[in-house]
Amino acid sequence: MIQMNIGGAQVQVTRKKRTESPLFQKVLGLGLALLLVILVTGIIIALSGKSPLVAGQCMIRGAFGTKNSVAETLIKSVPLLLSALGLTICYRTGLTSVGSEGQIIIGGLMATIVGVKLAALPSIALIPLGMIVGAIGGGLWASIAGLLKAKLGVSEVINTIMLNYVATYLVGYLVDGPLQEAAGFYPQSDMLGQNAWLPTILSGTRMHIGVIIAAVSVVLVWFLLWKLPLGYQMRAAGSNPIAARTNGINVAKNMVLAMFLSGAFAGLAGSIEIMGLHHRLMNGFSSSYGFDSMAVALLGGLHPVGVTIAALFFGALRTGANTMQRTLQVPVSLVNVIQGLVILFVLTQALLSRFTIRVIQRYAGKKEEDHHA
Amino acid sequence: MGEKLLEMRHVTKRFGKLIANRNVDLDLERGEVHALLGENGAGKTTLMNCLYGIYAPEEGEILLNGEPLKLSGPKDAIAHNIGMVHQHFMLVPPLTVLQNIVLGQECKITPMDLSKARTKVEDLCERYHLQLDLDEKVADLSVGAQQRVELIKALYRGADILILDEPTAVLTPPEVEGLFDILHQFVAQGKSIIIISHKLWEVKRISDRVTVLRSGEAVSTVFTKDVEQEDLAAMMVGKRVTLEYDKAPVTSQKDILELKDVSAKSGQNASSLKNVSLHIREGEVLGVAGVDGNGQLELSEVIMGLRPIQSGSVRYRGEDITQVSTRRRIESGFAHIPEERMTQGLVMNFTLSENMILNCYDKPPFTVHHLFDSKKMKANGEKLVEDYDVRPRTPEALARSLSGGNQQKVIIAREFSQDPQLVVAVQPTRGLDIGASDFVHQKLLGQKAKGAGVLLISADLDEVLAVSDRVIVINEGEIMGEFVPGEIDYAEIGLMMGGTRRTVKKEGELA
Amino acid sequence: MLDIITGFLEATLRMACPIMLASLGALFTARSGIINFAMEGIMITGAFFGVYGSYLTGSPWLGALLGMAGGLAASLILGIMSITVKVDQVVAGTGVNVLFLGLTSYFCTVLYPNGQPSSVNAFQSVVVPGLSSIPVIGVFFRQNLLTYITFLLVPVIWYLLNKTTFGLCLRSVGEQPHAADSLGIHVDRMRYIAIILAGLLGGLGGAALSLGQVSCFIENMTSGRGYVAWSAVTVGKYSPIGIMGASILFGGAEAVQLRLQAMGIEIPQQFFQMLPYVLTMVVLAGVVGRTVGPKAIGKPFVKGER
Fold it and tell me: Can you give the C-alpha Rg of chain A in angstroms?
């Protein structure tokens, strides 16, 4: 606000500053959080006696150095992006799901059953069927926690975590029993029929059509949240369930639906992993994409566009970390450390941006005073 | 009396740009009851929070017995024998009365010995004729008894100066009398009392002197016996206000809403509804008077379909809607101004535009062919902030950034822009200043003029009497009686609010 | 048959001990009004540093101390995030878990340059002469010292919460922080004390897992026990005695898995491995709604704001 004296009359002019825009504050906060994550990670690497700069170099080279590494980065971003999109819906509806991992596993399991048992179907039918069944499987799995929350008020956090373990052991049992490969040697399923394999879209790499499906999903989630009344309803129920209820919105129904949708996206991610890369079910195929996707969703500011950028960042991190381990012997578990730091620092984003803006303003104010003097 | 015990000099308290108290002087004499009178938001509670060490004033000083007093927290205030009973009781419900009284005195891992404390508390109870079961859980006590626990708590800590913030707001008339008796005993034993109030009759009844606060400034301090209620009102508001509105008489005989023998379970710390019957006609404002927590909230929730009922029926324009969902009720013309603006009324992280369609986001023009149209939403927001004079006039501002009065305007804009048939307004002016309250009243009467039925639930009796065509009084979930404003006097209404059923039926009441 | 029961009881007690310790720690945070989803991260840190301490010093007790210090560090991060920065406690707790899951694996490679030894000095059973030879209940008298300490902590913590002014203050902070504040109780300080106790006990619980059961550290060896411990707080209705019962129940579920597997029963092992997690879900569904937690749980305290 600026006070001016024009012709003896006090006039107040409000000039909208950039620092007051919510988008600017959010981007600033997220950027600062990311900077701090990189800083702390660097310190941790340095403490183990390695050069953080060289490590960083290795990472970037590993993630983007060649056509193949770019393809790998994109492939790794796909499951991250899909399940983070699911979590975006979920968190926006006020539910803290930690269950993407289990939902990915169930999605992969469902796609395997379709791909193995219905291998005779043509690709054009088999691939969509595998994805749909995978998504429905993941969605129903997540709905267990959603229903328990909506009907009984049991914390969805605990139940989604418990369901992760149950899913892991369920697949562990299946690949060791009813679904085990005909050879009966390893704890893994038979290969999916060739017709269930996702076609690649970049020759000489493993890049498959899952990348396109993920890109379409970004638009779908954006459309759901801001172009459908359902999205408005979910956001209202998530921001203030009491006000939503007072205005006639069925909060419980929204909770179950949001859980289902988030599970469906994770299930889709699982089916794409199986049909696009592994082509068979085995223990640990989900390689904690589900847990990473929490960090992705938060770093992405729960917005489809931000989530896309964050997913690419984490995809690159995973690809790069492998190279880093090979060249520098820095353990891959560093990626977990980075995720944890991302979650924690992103939580402080509001504080970070407020603090920085205050510092900037103080500096700017001082400069202005100097100018006047 | 006559000896100056405490002085606040030139106290100024700011919250950011907002000045809550400006240059306030206040003095308290030993053995007096000093009332602090002012409207909601005049800065009474803030001033007393400064005296109790909760806030630190930016300017000014506090003198106790002529010595400057530095307070860095309530603990310091307690150490200087200042005690405060807050409007919202500071009690821990799962603990017993005795545990609540001793709480915070020490924090050690040695065995807790309450026998000494028990004797001391029992002595205090005896001296001031207070009845309390020390081993009962506070959660099980009535509101009046909880207030006695608060009083004992302050005395136990050696309070000589007692600050009471709106102590009668939650009490029934007989309980108010009981409280006044207790306060008289305190004064007789040499204690000094500051009582915060916005009720004129109460100030007149209990206080020796009164300081009037207006917009954070002390307007004047006078001897209560020298002034009349009208003078106090003028000082408090700054101009003469008459709470009188022109109301068209109710002509229609058609009932919009009818409740028959409705019973429903209560929420926490409130009464359940017992066989409530009422009806509202087209173009009629039905007021519901009563002390807070006597089933008003439950009544509004039953009407809105937010609370299941155990027996009885709800009819809307003759049709049984007992089992109809909240959503369907809103669609068929119900509007709801809920008691809690911030939790029930608004989504604080949503913009004003978004909040203004919370009850109709999936209806045209906002949703057409299953698609949500945010441009229409924004246009609607722009129009409504203009029509309802919401400040700031920025529909993209977040609801949390608005003042209480403007938040209420957003809710009213949303509800009334849908042309309701029935308005359920619960405490619609709580916490608002006179200007904003008047705005709300005008809008309610505007709906009446359009032929809508209005249910006005309020603990502010003056409001109910000024706006309603007909009033019912509720106590412990039961209707105590019905009257037309002006028909009976305050004393009779007070009796009903306290739980005495009205026996005399006037002619035409059952028409 | 007697042997089976004895073996089962023995395994139950051993399995219940880490959960009980962590759960008792989480009880302090719950009672002070903090949701402690970070218990998983606290336990894994305790498990890692317990083994590392024993590896460095040769003493499992010094190891346990280092484990407690590690748990404390993890817990303090949750404390700072939820008490001082005032962010969503559930997400903060998850962040702590992911971070320390990663850090412990990372340390595992970095701190043991020549690889982790296959076993370190662990807790030994203390046999009470005479009592331990009673059939069946004798198992209660040939546990390791930490198990005895754990069971001893139950009445101690009960006393602390219910019979001391410290307990009174702590509970009031979790129920009505504004009331507590108005009486001069430092809300944030009490909550930090709870966080410290949770870190120490959770870290010890982790050490009980690594040093009391397998005598080495395995990546992600807590595998959800921290979450189970937090659930035990709710299932145990926020009381130490209830928590003891809940921990024995969950410990029993783990023991069933071990014993039946050993007995060669024809049910696939994975179903037994699922049992503790399924049991947690079932019991929570049955208990929640009938238990009333501390009123202010999960809500950061802001002075003057109700």
Answer: 24
For residue B111, the chain C residues in CB contact (below 8 A) are 163-164
Q: Find the range with the poorest average confidence among A295-299, B316-320, C290-294.
A: C290-294
What's the DSSP call for residue B314? E
**What number does CATH give the domain B250-333+421-511?**
3.40.50.300
The number of beta carbons lying within 10 Å of the beta carbon of residue B384 is 23
Alpha helices in B189-220 (DSSP H): 200-206
- Interchain CB contact of A161 with C (< 8 Å): yes
Helix (H) or strand (E) holding C207: helix C187-209
- For residue A2, the cross-strand partners are A13
In this complex, the residue of A161, A331, A348 whose CB is nearest that of residue C224 is: A161
Residues 6+ apart with CB under 8 A from C142: C125, C126, C127, C128, C132
Residue C118 neighbours by CB distance under 10 Å: 7
- Please tell me the distance from the alpha carbon of residue C275 to that of residue C251, in angstroms, as a whole number: 11
Tokens for C260? 């039946």
Q: What CATH class does B4-237 carry?
A: alpha beta
* CA-based radius of gyration for chain B: 25
Measured CA angle at B504 (ends B501, B509), to 5 deg: 100
Asked if residues B86 and C165 have their Cβ atoms less than 8 Å apart, the reply is no
Q: B250-333+421-511: same fold as B4-237?
A: yes
Residue ranges covered by each domain of chain B: 4-237, 250-333+421-511, 347-419
The set of residues, in sequence order, having a beta carbon less than 8 Å from that of B323 and lying 6+ positions away, is none
Closest CA to C205 of C80, C82, C48: C48
Asked if residue A192 lies in contact with residue A279, where contact means CB atoms within 8 angstroms, the answer is yes
Name the minimum distance, in Å, from the CA of B269 to any CA of chain C: 14
Identity of the amino acid at A47? L
Burial class (CB within 10 angstroms; exposed 0-12, middle 13-18, buried 19+) of A15:
exposed
* Contacting residues for B188 by C-beta, under 8 A, at least 6 apart: none
pTM of the model: 0.87
> For the purposes of burial, counting CB atoms within 10 Å of the CB of B274, is it exposed (0-12), middle (13-18) or buried (19 or more)?
middle
State the Cα–Cα distance between residues A337 and A350, nearest whole angstrom.
22
The amino acid at residue C46 is G
Beta-bridge mates of residue B221? B211
Reduced DSSP (H G I as helix, E B as strand, rest coil) percent helix, strand, coil of chain A, to 5: 75, 5, 20
Instruction: Determine the residue among B112, B146, B156 to mutate to test chain C binding: the one whose Cβ has the most chain C Cβ atoms within 10 Å.
Output: B112
Predicted confidence (pLDDT) per residue in A207-245, tens digit:
999 999 999 999 999 999 999 999 999 999 999 999 999
ipTM: 0.90
Q: Is A219 helix (H, G, I), strand (E, B) or coil?
A: helix
Report pLDDT digits (tens) over A169-197: 999 999 988 888 888 888 999 889 889 89
Tell me whether residue B223 is exposed, middle or buried, using C-beta atoms within 10 angstroms of its C-beta: 0 to 12, 13 to 18, 19 or more.
Answer: exposed
CB contacts, 8 Å: C289 with chain A: 152-153
Report d(CA A17, CA A297) in Å as an integer. Answer: 29
> DSSP alpha helices (H): ranges in B63-109?
74-79, 97-102
Strand B470-475, strand B311-316: pairing: unpaired
* 8 Å CB contact between B128 and B186: yes
Rg (CA), chain C: 19
Residue of A247, A251, A302 to mutate for B, most B C-beta atoms under 10 A: A247
d(CA B353, CA A290): 36
Of the candidates C109, C93, C102, the one whose C-alpha atom is nearest the C-alpha of residue C40 is: C93
What are the start-end ranges of the H helices in B198-256?
Answer: 200-206, 229-237
Contact C207, C68 (CB under 8 A): yes
B256 is written with which tokens? 């919009």
Query: A296, A303 in Cβ contact below 8 A?
Result: no
Q: Which residues of A17-27 are buried (b: 16+ CB within 10 A; e: fewer)?
A: eeeeeeeebbe
